[in-house]
Specification:
Length: 485
């Protein structure tokens, strides 16, 4: 209320105050007060009289009328919120407040439980980490939150991985480059299965891949397509191309050729007795193949590493070109100097394995001595090589430690070719007993002919009389390597 109005009313009240005895009492303008209330005390002889006696009207412990400050507070229990704790006097409504005093996340004054924790420090442990909140001091035991094997909270690096048969650790989610299924390992990726009517019945995937590829190569205009640079007619074949395309979360390789790949490089590209058409692949048609994990057979393992061989014929090419003999004084069937070894350690290794996968492939000393061939006195044996990818030897494919039996027809050695290998011109059997199986190169030279190398036949026979010529392009490729487990 306005102070002037209050004073006027007060004066009128005092002037009108008349006692029952007819005496006009006078009262002080100042308030008198105690815990019970406030009043105006008499200034005349009748001191027992008072005017405007009323209870206090408190706000925050102070009377709004007379200014009396309540002292004997009757506070209730403390309450709390995120800002702090508080309590209120039940008489004068005065409010007391303060910051929380935390012990393990609970305020010891009001029992408020802090929730919006700010964890600034962690104690690393294998099973989890101890995190201390910088606000309330709460120490909480938490499980690690991993990203690629490292906890995003405390930085703990998980090492005791549990992969099972998959690619990812079941604890930290870190991916390893390979997956395991019993005696097989899936590692790396290479084009294998053709996209055709069996897996793309309406042709929508092939149409999408063709659109993504753009125009087919024509003459010098190759667009995004790259030449295989295969040998033909004594030079490089410029009539066969490939293109890798990512689409819908998958990886695909397109293959297109306008002339058949010759069986022998010295023949012209138009030579019709190749194997591509026999395998169902024809000129002037784009074929698409899906990149798929390579299936490897475990030949040997010691807990730290494993020796693997591909379970399928993945590609094909000549062991070495006929008109060149590699290094000076070496024979065409010299594995150290061969086209095939250069392709395996360069093109294949770079195509099949990404950087992280390449790191676990061990460099192996490859034994190329005469003892690994069909003859202990082979005059064409070459020095040992240090390779990450290589071919098996004649001795390897007869070694019982690797799961192979004596020479002859053998299911363990008889391997089918992938669709992609067939499209490249792999020599594949059409006989009922071995349909789809191909001949595949060994690294061992023939002991009689410098232009021949050993291979495994359709039925799994190791070595052939005389062996195929090294410049035979239909020879299948079955890579081998050793990886760190």
């Amino acid at each position: 209320m306005n102070k002037k109005i209050l004073a006027a009313l007060l004066a009128a009240s005092l002037a009108a105050a008349i006692s029952a005895c007819g005496h006009a009492h006078t009262f002080a303008q100042a308030w008198s007060a105690d815990e019970e209330g406030h009043w105006h005390a008499a200034t005349c002889a009748h001191t027992a009289e008072c005017a405007d006696l009323a209870a206090h009207e408190y706000a925050e412990g102070k009377c709004l009328v007379c200014g009396y400050e309540h002292a004997g507070h009757l506070f209730g229990k403390y309450e709390g919120d995120a800002a702090g704790h508080f309590r209120t006097c039940s008489v004068c409504h005065k409010r007391e407040s303060g910051g929380h005093l935390y012990r393990q996340g609970i305020c010891v004054v009001c029992a408020y439980a802090h929730e919006d924790h700010v964890f600034a420090s962690y104690t690393e442990e294998e099973g989890g980490h101890a995190a201390v909140c910088s606000v309330c001091g709460l120490t909480a035991q938490e499980e690690h939150r991993y990203r690629e094997g490292v906890c995003i909270d405390c930085g703990h690096v998980h090492t005791d991985h549990t992969f099972g048969t998959g690619y990812s650790c079941t604890v930290c989610g870190m991916e390893r480059p390979y997956a395991r299924d019993g005696g097989k390992i899936f590692f790396g990726s290479y084009p294998q299965t053709e996209i055709d009517g069996s897996n793309d019945p309406d042709g929508s995937l092939r149409n999408s891949l063709n659109m993504a590829a753009g125009a087919r190569p024509a003459g010098a205009q190759t667009g995004r397509w790259q030449s295989y640079r295969y040998l033909a007619d004594g030079g490089l074949l410029s009539d066969m191309w490939y293109l890798d395309v990512s689409y819908g979360g998958g990886e695909y390789r397109g293959v297109y050729f306008t002339a058949y790949r010759p069986v022998y490089p010295e023949y012209p590209a138009s030579f019709v007795n190749g194997y591509q058409d026999d395998n169902g692949y024809f000129v002037n048609t784009v074929y698409w193949f899906r990149y798929e994990p390579i299936e490897w057979r475990i030949l040997e393992e010691d807990g730290a590493s494993a020796l693997l061989m591909a379970n399928f014929i993945l590609d094909c090419m000549q062991f070495d070109r006929a008109e060149e003999t590699g290094g000076e004084g070496s024979a065409p069937n010299n594995y150290e100097e061969s086209d095939l070894r250069n392709w395996l350690t360069g093109v294949f290794f770079g195509t099949a394995f990404r950087e992280e996968a390449q790191k676990i492939v061990e460099r192996t000393e490859v034994d190329n001595g005469a003892a690994t061939t069909a003859s202990g006195e082979n005059p064409f044996a070459c020095p040992n090589t240090q390779d990450k990818v290589f071919l098996l030897s004649y001795a390897d494919v007869l070694d019982p430690r690797y799961g192979f039996g004596p020479n002859g027809a053998s299911a363990a050695r008889s391997l089918k070719a992938t669709d992609y290998a067939k499209a490249q011109g792999a020599d594949v059997s059409s006989d009922y007993a071995y349909r789809g199986c191909g001949r595949w190169w060994l690294r061992s030279p023939d002991e009689t002919w410098s232009t021949c190398a050993e291979c495994v036949g359709y039925g799994g026979e190791a070595g052939e009389s005389g062996g195929p010529f090294v410049y035979f392009t239909g020879g299948g490729i079955v890579p081998a390597l050793r990886i760190i487990l």
